[in-house]
Amino acid sequence: MTAFNSLFQPIQIGSMTVDNRLLMSAMSINFGVNAHGHVTEQLIEYLVTRARGGVGMLLVGGGGVHPSGLELPDLPALWDDDCIPSLGELTRAVKATGCRCGMQLMHGGRQSYHDRKVAPSAIAAPAVVKGVPRALEVEEIRMLAASFGDAARRCRDAGFDFIEVHGAHGYLINQFLSPNANRRTDAYGGPFNHRIRFFLDILADIKAKCGADFPVGLRINGEDYIEDGWGIDDAKRLAAILEDRGADYLHVSAGVYGSSELTIPSMYTKQGCFIHLAEAVKQVVKIPVVAVGRIKSPQLACEVIESGKADMVALGRSLLADPQWPLKARSGQVDRIRPCIGCCLGCIHTVLQLEPGGCVVNPDVGREFLLEDAAEAVSPRTVLVVGAGPAGLAAARMATLLGHQVTVCEQSDHVGGALHYAAMAPGRREVGDIIGYFEGALKSLGVDLRLGTAVDASLIHSVSPDTVILATGSLVDIPMLRGLIQTRLEVCTATELYAEKIDIGPRVIVWGGNQAGLVTADYLAERGKQVAVLSRKAHFAEEMSSNDRYYLRERLKVGGVELFKKVVVDRFTEDGVVFHIGDRVVTLSGFDSVVLAEPFVAVRQAANLFKGFGAKVVFVGDAKRPRHVMYAISEGEEAARAL
């Protein structure tokens, strides 16, 4: 019997029948095109992998309709017929799996990463992208509307089943819709009916060039979440008009660059955060409505459909993390789904740095065309993995899948390493989801996992490994700060704080403006502590994604946490610290404790135990060099593949 049956019922979208209610959202992944903007094998295999995973329809992300609106440098270019042959290769490959294949059409407007930006008005984007755009002339607006129609026609000719027009997230169409970005006084600005004209012109041009039977979906914002922005009443009013003009489905999202609720929210935001907007739009139209917004679990996705809040569910980052999400949900193997942890680091943060996108928990993203299906090793090895943090667990799982005999030993009584403690911080429980996934995978594979077991000569002799993967992690080192040893303040590391429940008193200094420092400050503030964070660096938590860091910084404001950067410590005193920032001298007094959150140093001493045993020793994760979890999981899996 099919699990989550309502997700796997067919649906009619215009002239197109779709096998199930799951849509892979368009994601600007910033890889897989050549110098001409034509798609390559890299993008094709990335998409085919997700099509094989059982999603009913998928969208290629960020297809540029005109050079002036290319949002990112490495996205498909759709403004010339020479794009059609490579797009044809893509559609044939995707459609061979039974999945419906679509292209999202967009123009970045003022949110484009180049210096030729155009927009309804000469108003800079509120955040992320710098530079004031040039205001479009009326003839240019009409030309761009026609560019959408021409791009749609090329997509139809390349074999796409449908297209989606991106009218959300602060890109060009949304800029016309929103008073925040549109200060025009002509036929394309001012009252509501003028501001929607560009969108309606686009839809009419597409229908004229592609035919009434070619399915066209439209992505709109339910809320911009920014001052003087577009709201849900606007969206409902527009939705009815779009339906009347021939739209085949509506995909309801939210946010713009600089909005108070981000378009790609982190783990601090509740799952299903934009569903209520789709529900509101569905009340005013009869065409299918798609819900999106941190829909991570099959249970939530199923509830959306069964409750009638939407007709389809869009999955984005969930399919980066696990392309087989639909197949695993359909077979009831929910615990086998590799979870997105909402960190935003490998996906949106990397892409906004103009680098190829990826995924923290799935190192295969973007490498699908280089990887062959896992096959058992010709010469199986006996592998000892020391440490059951994310690097060790990832290595153990992959090595076992490849046919090696694996033993994992972990000195503590729990798996997860530093992530075990990181998941204790407010709003960061989902960080631990990936540990639960790996732990469940090892159990199902029958891996010999030994908790509370320190590596020693006896263990080494009993296992007799050919290869040792050292994933022993890192610890906070004691910084050389004048007066720190002599102070009467209680001094502990962040790890000790989480692990031992040390009584640190009501007023706490956190040393370290890194991710560990800010997360620890939030942990303490939520418990009613007065907290001051001291950082030697000019920026806080640079290793976090900007999306994730945004929500954390907002929490710290609410918690009253004081943040000091560019700190040079003069001395710690009996009850505080004296430091300077440039020429400014600051004295903090009346504090009870200091929590050390940096620097981290690799724990590698266990390597000495293997000298003379003849086993190959490989370091992974923080034992190699302290960094974030993306490196830990990637290095763990690669170490296993290299056996």
Show the helix and strand layout.
Blueprint: E1 11-13, E2 16-18, E3 22-24, H1 41-52, E4 57-64, H2 84-95, E5 100-106, E6 118-119, E7 134-135, H3 138-157, E8 162-167, H4 172-177, H5 192-195, H6 197-210, E9 216-223, H7 232-244, E10 249-254, H8 275-282, E11 289-291, H9 298-306, E12 312-315, H10 317-321, H11 325-330, H12 345-352, E13 382-386, H13 390-401, E14 405-410, H14 418-422, H15 433-445, E15 448-451, H16 457-463, E16 467-470, E17 474-476, E18 490-493, H17 494-500, E19 507-511, H18 515-526, E20 530-534, H19 546-558, E21 562-564, E22 568-572, E23 577-581, E24 584-588, E25 593-596, E26 600-602, E27 616-619, H20 629-641
Parallel strand pairs: 3-4, 3-12, 4-5, 5-8, 6-7, 8-9, 9-10, 10-11, 11-12, 13-14, 13-16, 14-15, 16-27, 18-25, 19-20, 19-25, 20-21
Antiparallel strand pairs: 1-2, 17-26, 22-23, 23-24
Helix pairs in contact: 1-2, 3-6, 7-8, 13-15, 13-20, 18-19
